[in-house]
Structure formats: C-alpha cells, structure tokens
Amino acid sequence: MSSEKMLIRTLLEEYAERGKMGRPVAQQDDTLVVSYGLSLIQILDLDEKNQVLSTNVWATYNWNDMYLKWEASNYSGIHTIRVPTSDIWMPDIKLYNYADTRLEEKRDALAVLSSDGSVVWIPQAVFKSSCSIDIRHFPFDVQTCTMKFGSWTYDGSKLDLQLLYNVSGFEMTDYMPSNEWEIKESSAIKNVKYYPCCPEPYVDVTFTLKIKRKVAFYSYILILPCLLLSSLTLVLFWLPPESPAKMQLGMNIFVAFFVLLLLLAESTPPAASSIPLIGAYYCLNMILITLSTLLSVVVVNLYFRGYRTKVPKVFKVVMIEFFARVFCMRKHLVEAQPGESPQATQNRGHSEFKYDRVGVYEMQTEDSWRMLSNGTPLLNDPDNPFERHYNSLPNAITNLEKEIKDIKQYLKVIVDKAGEREGKEKAAREWKNVALVLDRLFFFLYLIAMFASAFTIFETTLVQEN
C-alpha cells in the first residue's frame, strides 16, 4: 500500500472515531475562522422578468482543522492529500438570497488537506441569486446585484467568516466575457450585524456585481425603429390636406409604435416598480401621433369647409397675416384666379347678355331697314311690309322699353349671383389658407415636443450611466 493511501486511511479512521460532527476546535469558546472567496467564470443570464441572476463561479473555502494534521516525514514527505468532503467536517456557508429551484447549487469536488491542518475546497457552482432589477433606463440600464453568503446555523462567535486573501471583489482571472452584459465594477465586503434578540454577532460576506447592458442589439430592435417612426410622423404634416393618405399614415404609425411597445413588454418585468423611459417615450409618441391625427382631421375639415361660414377676423389676422409670415408661407397660400374679381365677372355677364338680346332684335328688323334704303315711295305703299312696320312703330317702342327693363332686371340678378359666388370662393380660399397655416403650426409644435421628449429621456439616461 502506498504511503498516500495509508495516510488517507489512517487520517480518516482517526477522524471518524472523533466524529465529523461539531466544529474542529480545541475549546467550546474558540472561534473557527473560515476564509471565503469567489472566482467569476461567466454571467450566464439575468432574467429581468423573474429578477434572477445566474452566474458560473468557483467558490473557494479555506479553514484549519486541527484533527487533520500529520507529520509529513512519517509518510514519505507527503504534504497534501485529497479526500471526499463527506468524510470531514464542512462549514455550512449558504447563499442567503437563493433563487434556485434546484436542491444543489455546487458540484462535488475533493477537499485538499495539508499537513498543517489547512483545508482548501474549491467546488464549481452555478448560483441563481435574486436581484432587484431597475428597468427605468432600459436598454441603457446598469444593474447592481448582490450575493450574500454566511453560515446558516453558526453565529459570529462560533464561525467567523473572512474574505479570502482580503480580496475586494470577485477574482476575474478566468472570466469569460458576456455577450449581453459588461462588468463595470465588483466588490466584496464583510458585514457584522447585531440583532435585538441575540447578543452574538452575525457575520456575512456580500459580493456586489455592477453590470451594464450592451445596447448594440437593442439599438436596432427598439431604438432605431422608434427614431425612424418619430421622423416619419413629421411627414404627416407635409402631406396635402386633400390626400387620403394623411389619415392612413397616422394610423399605421400608431400601430407600429404599439408593436414596439409589445416587444418592449416582452423584454421587461411585468411587475416592475417603474416603467422604462423608452416605454414612456413610446407612449408619448403614441399620444402625439393620436393628437396629430386628430389635428389632421381638423385641418382637412377646415380645408374643405368651403363657404358655409366666414373666417373670423381675429382668426384670419392671427393665422394668415401673422403665422403665415412667420413660417414664410405667403407665397404658398391659395390665391384668387386672375380676372375673377366681382367687377370683371359683372362686366363679362353684362356684355354677353347685351349682345345676345340686341342681336336678336337686329336680326328681326334687318330686312325692314334694308328696305328703307331703297327710297321713300315704299312708305306710301299700303301693301309694303315696311309701311306696316312703320305704322306699328309706337307699339315696338313700348315693347322695347319693356325688354330693356327686363334686361336691367336680368343684369341685376347676374351681378348679385356673381358677387355671391365670389364671396363664397373667397371664404373657401381663406379656410384653405387657414388650414395650410395650421398644418405648418402643428408640424413645428410636434417637432418641438418630439425633440424635447427625446432630449429629456436620453439626457436622463446618459446622466445615470455616467
């Protein structure tokens, strides 16, 4: 039998006779010191919905067991041996903020014993610890997660837990970088607490991990579409009011933001104490799009309002005179057609009517006047058509006066209708101009609101990140 086997059998048999239950100390009042450290291998996952941090670590335990000493010279100079942990006393160091449904968090590993009684145990472990998630600045968030370790049954007077080698955080030598998270800071601290119920101190070691989310993925999924849709909303105000696509575009953008909001809801905890600022930005954009669509309805209504009512004078001064000049829209407003003034319309109607009526009268009497040019003897001929016409001249004059009165009446009606039509056209033009100016005004209001909200949200996020 080799010296190593003999040493292990002899050591464990003697240890079993003493019993592995109970702290390996000489006196009851002695305090056993256990050093504890963690080497971070990988951040497996941070489940925002369940608020659980999964990490792959190597845990290191170091303490001194006075019953596991031997003289190396008696065993061929052997200074270290490996034994199963089930055969020796083990400290009951547990993760306090445990959030795992499994019964075992550590893989079994042999303990390394030294001839001076020192015990080193380095098991591999996958810890699932509860972590309070703050998603206010998602996806630019920085999360701070803690892992609290301590003895489950011993107080500080029985078992004193120390940081291994007085390290100030995780050991990062074998760390494998995560695709989603970047480690900003890690720390470890020993805490000693006293409770009103008990005079003994209670010791724990708390490891803190501060991680920042990598935003490259979310920039293309959540942020870039949001900015593009916000910019696309501006096009809503540049479409002509008579275009039916104005309403359709607004509704389509609203639906697109709703889809982004659903995608965001899938990535964040449903019972979070705060909502992400980007979610608030989505909702704000949906509100602005709703308002812009309603305002577009108002603009379209005003554009096609026509001559039903006149534009109030104050409204006309503010919109057409003031805002149109401020927005440099004077050249883009709807103007009257050239030659369509009321006076031009009246003159055109009067001249056309006069030509038609007089032309008919001249056609009726043309032959008679031509006969008059042949000589006077035609007047003395009772059978002459001109003689008969001459004799009925007083009646013709009376009829002519009546027709002139009718012409004047017809001209008055035409002039009134032309003036009324011109007034209606002017009112319709003014409403169209008011609609165009309002559309431009709403465009600038939405632009200001969009930039103000984006600046507020992203500026707050950058301040928090720095």
Automatic annotation (TrEMBL):
<feature type="domain" description="Neurotransmitter-gated ion-channel ligand-binding">
    <location>
        <begin position="5"/>
        <end position="215"/>
    </location>
</feature>
<keyword id="KW-0812">Transmembrane</keyword>
<dbReference type="InterPro" id="IPR006029">
    <property type="entry name" value="Neurotrans-gated_channel_TM"/>
</dbReference>
<dbReference type="InterPro" id="IPR002394">
    <property type="entry name" value="Nicotinic_acetylcholine_rcpt"/>
</dbReference>
<dbReference type="InterPro" id="IPR036734">
    <property type="entry name" value="Neur_chan_lig-bd_sf"/>
</dbReference>
<dbReference type="GO" id="GO:0004888">
    <property type="term" value="F:transmembrane signaling receptor activity"/>
</dbReference>
<dbReference type="Pfam" id="PF02931">
    <property type="entry name" value="Neur_chan_LBD"/>
</dbReference>
<keyword id="KW-1133">Transmembrane helix</keyword>
<feature type="transmembrane region" description="Helical">
    <location>
        <begin position="434"/>
        <end position="458"/>
    </location>
</feature>
<keyword id="KW-0813">Transport</keyword>
<feature type="transmembrane region" description="Helical">
    <location>
        <begin position="279"/>
        <end position="304"/>
    </location>
</feature>
<keyword id="KW-0406">Ion transport</keyword>
<feature type="transmembrane region" description="Helical">
    <location>
        <begin position="217"/>
        <end position="237"/>
    </location>
</feature>
<dbReference type="InterPro" id="IPR038050">
    <property type="entry name" value="Neuro_actylchol_rec"/>
</dbReference>
<comment type="similarity">
    <text>Belongs to the ligand-gated ion channel (TC 1.A.9) family. Acetylcholine receptor (TC 1.A.9.1) subfamily.</text>
</comment>
<keyword id="KW-1003">Cell membrane</keyword>
<dbReference type="GO" id="GO:0022848">
    <property type="term" value="F:acetylcholine-gated monoatomic cation-selective channel activity"/>
</dbReference>
<dbReference type="InterPro" id="IPR006201">
    <property type="entry name" value="Neur_channel"/>
</dbReference>
<dbReference type="GO" id="GO:0045211">
    <property type="term" value="C:postsynaptic membrane"/>
</dbReference>
<feature type="transmembrane region" description="Helical">
    <location>
        <begin position="249"/>
        <end position="267"/>
    </location>
</feature>
<keyword id="KW-0325">Glycoprotein</keyword>
<dbReference type="InterPro" id="IPR006202">
    <property type="entry name" value="Neur_chan_lig-bd"/>
</dbReference>
<keyword id="KW-0675">Receptor</keyword>
<dbReference type="Pfam" id="PF02932">
    <property type="entry name" value="Neur_chan_memb"/>
</dbReference>
<keyword id="KW-0770">Synapse</keyword>
<keyword id="KW-0472">Membrane</keyword>
<feature type="domain" description="Neurotransmitter-gated ion-channel transmembrane">
    <location>
        <begin position="222"/>
        <end position="458"/>
    </location>
</feature>
<protein>
    <submittedName>
        <fullName>Uncharacterized protein</fullName>
    </submittedName>
</protein>
<dbReference type="InterPro" id="IPR018000">
    <property type="entry name" value="Neurotransmitter_ion_chnl_CS"/>
</dbReference>
<keyword id="KW-1071">Ligand-gated ion channel</keyword>
<dbReference type="InterPro" id="IPR036719">
    <property type="entry name" value="Neuro-gated_channel_TM_sf"/>
</dbReference>
<keyword id="KW-1015">Disulfide bond</keyword>
<keyword id="KW-0407">Ion channel</keyword>
